[in-house]
Amino acid sequence: MDAIEAVLTRKSIRKYTGENISEENLRTILEAAVSGPTCANTRDWQFIVVRDRETLNKMADANGRPAEPLRNADVGILVLGDLDRAFSPAKDYWIIDGAIAGQNICIAAHGLGLGAVWLGTYPQAERVDNLKRLFDLPDNVIPHSIIALGVPAESGREKPPFEEDRFHFEKY
Question: Where are the domains of the chain?
Fold first, then answer.
């Protein structure tokens, strides 16, 4: 699948077959995670990759009802922001950098024929605190989001329509 097709056809997949993702495909997805741009090339993210069923269930509990897909995912990737590496004049760029990494994970998974869904964590304080405790994170490392991954057991929702009225050229 080429890059444009992957971007245009990606859908959030929340149900998985239970089959395992190969180590090769997981490595490709992780390479995609760190291939996006970051502010001033700070590379201010870190990741926790989880396959253990008990830990995936604890992550779902910590992140609340929207994180239920973790319960049948093969892999959960916790995207983290590392404030010690963040761009010092504007540290909040770590949030955007984490979002780019998460999107790359989702697109790469789709390109490999796998399913993924982005599960929001930051800025929900309770979710952030729960995950910090679960993984015993240092103060400078902030949970950003979780991506649930697996072999899709559903086709996803219909692609949203292209809304011409959302685009403005040269002026609003």
Answer: 3-154
CATH number given to 3-154: 3.40.109.10
Q: Which residues contact 34 (CB under 8 A, 6 or more apart)?
A: 43, 45, 101
Residue 110 main-chain phi, psi, to 5 deg = -60, -45
Token look-up 């979780």 returns 146
pTM: 0.96
Give 41-78 pLDDT, tens digit per residue: 999 999 999 999 999 999 999 999 999 999 999 999 99
CA atoms within 13 Å, Cβ hemisphere of 149 = 32
Radius of gyration of the chain (CA): 16
